[in-house]
Each structure stands twice: as structure tokens, then as C-alpha cells.
């Protein structure tokens, strides 16, 4: 299933995204919150083009994994140093989260803002110290993420909180795909384009630390809550974007996330 969070008029809710035989996409409105009970439909169905897609979840925290593709480690060695045997973990605040087509604001204090296209994991239940063989039980689904980064500040600050944490620096969407197994999620193409030009083209099969290892590691020291998001790392090809450009991140079998880069008024 593809579960979207959307607004239509003055109402915000969740719905199932489906496609008819003619290729038209619709959203079937759900009752309540999909993470807090069984999925029930209201019977209301609207065209996808008539709603505004929002970030599919509002996480209490976004847990990010750095240096998780060897080719990305190599290209960023001058900024972030060598790789690590254990996953490199950092956080983005919930205030960084935006949805599809929302603007990403280029801070005045930064001279270089980079895209980082990633597969994102959505946690489905409260969990801690999850063993590897139980990881599949705590995953609600997958979405697309963009770990936007003020690269110059990452280098000068020597830690990543400010560079990764600006408002709008964590686009998520367009929906949550719940139908992928761990094995399928481990073999997905991840691409990023800027104004239609391909900048990143990788595959989750290239990850150094797989999804089970990431969740087991993070949950060994941090309680994860329903709706929390884990960004699993970015492949090589990161680079800057300017005001006026548009970033598109696509993950195979999930969808595409598009956001313009704008100056804050």
C-alpha cells in the first residue's frame, strides 16, 4: 500500500493512493492515523491532482546515517574524514521536515547547500534494542528523503547539527510504501536530478550498513517511536544547488520527491 498524508481544502488526513485502469491516481481517505490503529477507509475518494501532498509523517526525530556508501565516503573524505566500522549517526530536528514540492530555503549564512538523496525508513511501533531478526516487525514502510546540507558549515563547525538542521532541510515524501520486504528494500535504485540533470545514481545494495544493522544499532541506545524516520545514507554524487533550481530524488518502487530551492524572504 501507498499511504499519503494530504490536505484538501481545510482538512488534513491520510489516504491510500491507488491507480485505475486508465492510469489516473486517486486518494481514498482513511479514518484516523494509520500508525495508531487498523486502517479503515471513509469511502471518500478524490483525484490525487486535486489534493496537496504533505510530509507523509511528522516524526519526533529524524535519525540519519552518514558515510554509508563507500563511494560517498571517498568523495567527502576531505570534509568528514574516513569511514567508520560502526554506523555514523546524527539527528535532524522535526522542524526540518517538509513535504513534496515545499520550498527548501537556502540560508544566507551558507555559501554552499547540497542535496543528498536517500531511502528513508518509517518506524511503525515503539521499540528499543531491536534484534536483527525482529527488525522487519518494527518497520511501517519506506519513503524518499533528501538530507539537505549546508556543506560549508558542516566543514567549519566540525560537527553537523547546524549544517543539517535548518528549517526545510529534510524533505520527505511523496508517500509511504508499506509493501516492500527487507530484501526488496536492499536492492532499490536511488537517483537525484537537479533541473533534470542526473547528479546521483546509486543503489541501496551498495550500503555499507544494511537496514537491519542500522535499526538494531540505533535502537541499542535510542528508543524509536511510531512515525520516527531513519535516513539510510546517500550514494556518491552529492553537490550544490542554487536558488531557483529544483531537486528531484527518486527511489525505485516508492516514488519521486521534488522540491525547489528558494531564498527566504
TrEMBL record:
Pfam families, alphabetized: FAA_hydrolase, Rv2993c-like_N
Keyword field contains Metal-binding: yes
GO molecular-function terms, A-Z: hydrolase activity
Keywords, in A-Z order: Hydrolase, Metal-binding
Every Fumarylacetoacetase-like C-terminal domain range: 61-262
Gene3D superfamilies: FAH, Fumarylacetoacetase-like, C-terminal domain
Signal peptide span: none
Domain Rv2993c-like N-terminal: 1-56
Full protein name: Fumarylacetoacetate hydrolase family protein
Provenance organism: Thermobifida alba
Amino acid at each position: 500500500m501507498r499511504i499519503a498524508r494530504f490536505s484538501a481544502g481545510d482538512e488534513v488526513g491520510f489516504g491510500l493512493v491507488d491507480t485505475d485502469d486508465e492510469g489516473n491516481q486517486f486518494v481514498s481517505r482513511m479514518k484516523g492515523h494509520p500508525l495508531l490503529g487498523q486502517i479503515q477507509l471513509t469511502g471518500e475518494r478524490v483525484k490525487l491532482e486535486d489534493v496537496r501532498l504533505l510530509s507523509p509523517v511528522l516524526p519526533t526525530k529524524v535519525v540519519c546515517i552518514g558515510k554509508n556508501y563507500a563511494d560517498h565516503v571517498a568523495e567527502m573524505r576531505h570534509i568528514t574524514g574516513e569511514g567508520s566500522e560502526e554506523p555514523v549517526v546524527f539527528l535532524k530536528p522535526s522542524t526540518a521536515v517538509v513535504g513534496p514540492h515545499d520550498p527548501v530555503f537556502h540560508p544566507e549564512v551558507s555559501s554552499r547547500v547540497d542535496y543528498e538523496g536517500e531511502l528513508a525508513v518509517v518506524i511503525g511501533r515503539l521499540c528499543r534494542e531491536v534484534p536483527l531478526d525482529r527488525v522487519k516487525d518494527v518497520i511501517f514502510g519506506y519513503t524518499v528523503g533528501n538530507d539537505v546540507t549546508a556543506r560549508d558549515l558542516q566543514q567549519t563547525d566540525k560537527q553537523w547539527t547546524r549544517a543539517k538542521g535548518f528549517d526545510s532541510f529534510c524533505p520527505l515524501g511523496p508517500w509511504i510504501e508499506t509493501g516492500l520486504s527487507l530484501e526488496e528494500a536492499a536492492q532499490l535504485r536511488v537517483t537525484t536530478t537537479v533541473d533534470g540533470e542526473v547528479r546521483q545514481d546509486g543503489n541501496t545494495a551498495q550500503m555499507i550498513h544494511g537496514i537491519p544493522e542500522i535499526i538494531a544499532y540505533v535502537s541499542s541506545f535510542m528508543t524509536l517511536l511510531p512515525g520516527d524516520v531513519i535516513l539510510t545514507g546517500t550514494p556518491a554524487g552529492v553537490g550544490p544547488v542554487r536558488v531557483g533550481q529544483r531537486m528531484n530524488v527518486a527511489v525505485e518502487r516508492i516514488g519521486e520527491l521534488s522540491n525547489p530551492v528558494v531564498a527566504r524572504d
